[in-house]
Design a protein that fits this description.
single chain; five-stranded antiparallel sheet; 9 helices
């Protein structure tokens, strides 16, 4: 229960922040992958917003609804039952604490590795409180979303005239891909009505460090993205579509042409929000640098070359809202 006469805290956790209500909703570019010109629309959206949604996909909406129901069965368990699947290290169940560096939010979540070999070697990824049906449906979901993501990445590579059509997709289809899957639950918080127009942070502002993220949610609002002029805009919920977000790694691989998008989630006073995010990451040893064919003749890379493992370790030492790429920008390094 949130007590509004004092800071919003949970035990010894740091204060959960509030923020001003965002501006207007933003018109999100919608892409039908089967239509002519889809790859051009995708790249334009990635350059301008770092964000778009895919409509008329081949993933069953009935299946998505059933998976959401299975997730809610878990999140509605008593706290002591959910705690058997945590704390996340890094996989498993977590509540309010986001990462190891002091970030907190009005959220509980399940985080899975999508790499079977990694999961088998990490006993903390087992999450014993997860039902077999939820685990099987999550695996089926990840397989379908990964396939759709590869299609999108191949369209990006083709439109940007990269060296091969598989220049990006091979990284998440690789058996050693360091991808992960997250289910977030933002409980309804009726007490928010007393916050005088301010909103409670569910998940603080950040960019995703991976190549690309794919998000699907129920029909509850809360997701917001920040555009180029630093204005926050609400994203209208649409449970029948998938939202794609450019990650930091893709920004580097496009030498800054495609922009990783800063986003956050706010809690709602009346509706709980459930979202599912697939984070498409490369193998740990993959070197992250501009892909051949992207840069013009004589153009130099904006970033110091690094491996995904190096960037991942650096990113998870920072706070959510930090500019993680700044540590690898050549201009910033030259000023040190």
């Amino acid at each position: 229960m949130v007590v509004l006469s004092q800071p919003i805290v949970d035990g010894n956790l740091a204060q959960i922040k509030t923020c001003k209500a965002a501006g207007d909703s933003l018109a999100i570019p919608a892409v039908d992958l089967s239509q002519f010109g889809a790859k051009t629309l995708i790249v334009e959206a990635c350059k301008e917003l770092g964000f778009f949604k895919v409509i008329n996909h081949r993933i069953s909406v009935d299946f998505l609804t059933k998976l959401e129901g299975e997730a809610m069965k878990f999140f509605q368990l008593p706290p002591q039952e959910k705690a058997k699947s945590g704390p996340p290290n890094p996989f498993g169940y977590g509540s309010k604490v986001i990462g190891p560096n002091g970030d907190v939010g009005w959220v509980e979540y399940l985080l899975f590795s999508t790499n079977p070999d990694l999961a088998s070697r990490n006993p903390n990824s087992a999450a014993p409180g997860i039902s077999q049906s939820l685990r099987e449906m999550a695996n089926e979901y990840v397989s379908a979303v990964r396939e759709m993501t590869c299609e999108v990445l191949e369209m990006i590579a083709e439109e940007m005239e990269m060296e091969t059509r598989q220049a990006l997709s091979r990284l998440i289809s690789d058996e050693k891909s360091d991808s992960c899957f997250r289910m977030n639950h933002y409980p309804a918080c009726p007490e928010l009505q007393a916050l005088s127009g301010r909103s409670l942070i569910g998940f603080g502002e950040h960019t995703d460090p991976q190549i690309i993220s794919v998000l699907r949610s129920n029909n509850a609002s809360g997701l917001q993205i920040r555009n180029a002029d630093a204005t926050w805009h609400s994203v209208p919920p649409d449970p029948t579509t998938f939202f794609f977000l450019v990650g930091d790694s893709l920004q580097v691989m496009s030498n800054g042409r495609l922009k990783s998008v800063k986003h956050r989630v706010l809690a709602d006073s009346m509706k709980s929000r459930v979202s599912m995010i697939y984070f498409g990451g490369p193998p740990l040893t993959e070197r992250i640098a501009p892909v051949k064919g992207v840069m013009e003749e004589g153009e130099e890379s904006l970033y110091k070359e690094f491996t995904w493992s190096e960037y991942k370790k650096s990113a998870y030492k920072t706070r959510l809202g930090d500019n993680r790429l700044s540590f690898f920008e050549k201009s910033a390094l030259a000023d040190q």
